[in-house]
Amino acid sequence: MSVTIAGIYLDPAGIAVPAARIIIAAKRTTADTFRELIVSQVTGDNGEYSFDLVPGYYRVTVLYPDQDRTTVIGDMELEANSPPGSLNDYVRFADPVLADPTVYAEMKRWYGVTSSNSSEAVTAAAVAVEAKDVAQDASVSANEAAIVSVENKEQTVVSAAEAKEASGSAKSDAARAKGYADNVQNVAEANTYYTTPEDPDGTIAGLAGTPNGKSFRVAIQDATLSVVAFNYYLNKGGVAEFITSYPNKRYIDMVNSLADSTDRRTRGLLTLKRRKKPVDFVSRQGASMFSINENSEKEMPGKTFSDYMNILRELIIGPSALRRARPGYLFNLVAGGFRLLAVRDDGTGTVEYRGIPLENHIGLLKNTLGGFGDSLSDNGRNPPVEAGNPRGWTFNARSWQMWASLFSDGRIKYIGQWATGGYTTADMIRDHLKPAIAAKPRFITFLGGRNDVIQKNGDGSFKFSLSVIKNNVKYILTEFRKNGVIPVVCSMAAQNNSDPALKSRENAINAFLRAYATNQGLPFVDMRAVTVDPVTDGWRAGYNGKLPDGGPDPSHPAPLGAFHMGKALEEALAPFTMPVYPQLAIANPVTEGGANAIVNPLFLDTVSGIPTGWTVVGGGVSIATDPAVVGNVLVVTGIGATVPRVSQIVTVIPGETRTFSFRVKTDVTIDNSTACYCEANDAFKTNIAGIRTWKQSTDGFMTFNYDVIIPADVTEVNVIIAANAGQICVGQIGLIKVEDI
Questions:
Q1: What mean pLDDT, rounded, does the chain reach?
Q2: Between 20 and 30 A from 420 (CA), which of 122, 340, 539, 607?
Q3: 322 by DSSP, 3-state: which?
Q4: Dist CA 704 CA 679 (whole Å)
């Protein structure tokens, strides 16, 4: 069963705060959740938020749009029978000082004293004031007035003494009660005022609305805007004379409840003061468990002097500390209150430095690459052939990440992308961030923010402020880093528009992306510099695509633009990646059940110029050689309306992982296309891997490789090589089984 926590997040002036990220972290492991599990949400345009949380104890923090660090709001505890409410209803102790056990105990003492005093005051007021309604007001206000006394221990003692003396003298009691009632009536009639930036202590408004000789009070609010106390003042000839300050009853009740809870959790130990031992921790049975003697020496059972306890104290609670590991960790080293180093309990001993994993192997990094963003990444993946069919994973020449893989001869292994056209950074966080992290690429490109920059409200104002966009980007990049993924930060590519406001926002976000990547030591690729025409400040000629009506696409790269973007990406990643290249077919004989499922992969076996084991449909198929390729090269050339097609059906096992790899060279224009891909040999013909509708020449042989998991119920795969009025040359083709380690 979950508890709904919803409301409007307001600033101290009562104005809704949009785009604030509220982060709720579980602080204890329960039957329903685990410690340190986190949920977060960005407040809506009107500051609205809504969480459905299981019962548990939570820490609430907030990241404001214009800040870099989170602010602790406080803690809250939800029980199975807790009713729905807002953060204001449940968050306790926004000020961490109030969470100290010493404060609990003192607040509990206040509650006991004030409860006793308030009862006496109510009784006394009832004797002195005949009217029932006046007596009721007196009792309530007396409760508040009595709380005032706990601000000072001496005042509390005096109050208690007066109460005791009053009980022995009815006449004195009645006189004191009469004065109490007069004061109560004055306090009860006090209006409440609130602080503002112009009136920081609230007395300006209080004096303006309060007659001479009357009292008013100013509400004191915590970070959640909950009233925790009141300051009382007397209008004395136009001057605010401070009377006292005290917490409200609801706050005292809450602290008392928490203090009782603390008592229940610590009933196994007592702390006593003894004549010879200033401090002595004893069990309920009276046995000393730990003590400090008159020489400030620490003793344990058997009177063993435990000087080593000083060392343990520094390690456990000092500024530098070895902390008991949190769930999911084997070791934590804390310095200056910050977790500096940690070792994860993940089976591989991943080392964290300030929450970011460190690679514990020697040398360069694993070569896997993912893509993250909006349509500039999404457009490089082919859409479904028919609506309702699975989309599959073939790429066209607009995929700049695939071009980077090809330029590296397959050293960079592209493993997929998490991108959707039209998505803002908030949309990416909602839908794509977790799946991208779960895939665990070593590198991932981030190119996004254009949709945030251009979107407007109905009145023409921009929908997202620059600070909101920047905060979302920082959150995305930080989450990647925390999970061992290295973001490759890319500036937004060229854009054809003449709106000065849009240009200004684009330039601001691009400048931020460069600065942030530099500050954090992240790879940065300036896609704007790669694609922009220095004369027009728009796309370079031929670098951007066309709209359906034939006009220039203002935002998206054409295959030629993606070609150059991919080259820039490969150059940026080259210093970081290992010199490990993909497995290609290197021998023509194929063993049944062997690694390569494709027969005659080097095209060495031919009959009348046609490779055996392959089915040829249409003309324009020939065999050639090239020093860049082992074995022969299959050349497929489309002429006119004839589309030659070479294919082979191979047997596979559902669920197994295979690498589809080949050497490829294309000679094609934007108006024609080539393809080398594999698809499921079933009714859906789902594209599994490869290049398709490829409309850009490669200028030489490159290596394609992509790892695929054979879909469920797929037992046969059809490998297809085709050309539509273009030419494609393929060699060393393989569908090679990946060894599982």
A1: 80
A2: 539
A3: strand
A4: 16
